[in-house]
Amino acid sequence: MFSSPLARANQHLSLFGFLKVPMIGWCRPKILSIDDKHVTMQIPLGRRTKNHLNSMYFGALAVGADVAGGFLAMAMAEQRGVKISLAFKSVNADFHKRPEDDVVFTCFDGNKINQMISESIETGHRVNQPVTIVATCPSLHGDEPMATFELTLSVKKIDD
């Protein structure tokens, strides 16, 4: 039986969290939707991710922003059949409200990331650009941002 692309993406994310970045696995993110323009993923609020104020802990929010921006880049590179080295070089975050339920992270910078990958393929150099991730708490506040992250994504094509 064939699994859907979304199910495969979630399997890939779980395996990556288990093998490469245990903090990702600890927070148990789930990809809700992904295409060549955006990714939407969720981290549940629970014992692992909440702070003493019963809202999502800063570290869990950072994991969500990291996964939203990074997974989109990894998926786009895989779709193109290239391997990339991916890192974040800087982070800027604005916190607007306390997220007191599950948090959804969305990155709409797929076109920008695709251009970055193309530039790295063409030049062989590392390419750095800011990507924006918005964290919302839909069950309590709809589309109102709880936090906005700007991460400088750094990608470079890895030669085989």
Topology of helices and strands:
Blueprint: H1 5-19, H2 22-27, E1 30-34, E2 39-43, H3 58-80, E3 84-95, E4 103-107, H4 110-123, E5 127-136, H5 138-141, E6 145-157
Antiparallel strand pairs: 1-2, 2-4, 3-6, 4-5, 5-6
Helix pairs in contact: 3-4
Your description of this structure?
- By secondary structure, this protein is an alpha+beta fold.
- The protein is built from 5 helices and 6 strands; from the N terminus they run H-H-E-E-H-E-E-H-E-H-E.
- The chain has helices at 5-19, 22-27, 58-80, 110-123, 138-141, and strands at 30-34, 39-43, 84-95, 103-107, 127-136, 145-157.
- Strands 1-2-4-5-6-3 form a 6-stranded antiparallel β-sheet.
- Helix 3 (58-80) packs across helix 4.
- The longest helix is centred in the middle third of the chain and has 23 residues, at 58-80.
What's this model, at a glance?
The chain is an alpha+beta fold and 160 residues long. The protein has 5 helices and 6 strands, in the order ααββαββαβαβ.
Radius of gyration: 15 Å
In terms of structural class, how would the helical and strand content be classed? alpha+beta
- Continuous helix count: 5
Strand content: 25-35%
Round the mean pLDDT to the nearest integer and report it.
94
Order of helices and strands: HHEEHEEHEHE
**Termini separation:** 32 Å
Count all strands and give the number. Answer: 6
Shape: globular
Which segments are poorly predicted (pLDDT under 50) over 5 or more consecutive residues?
Answer: none
The helicity comes to 25-40%
Q: Major sheet: order of its strands?
A: 1-2-4-5-6-3
Largest sheet: 6 strands, antiparallel
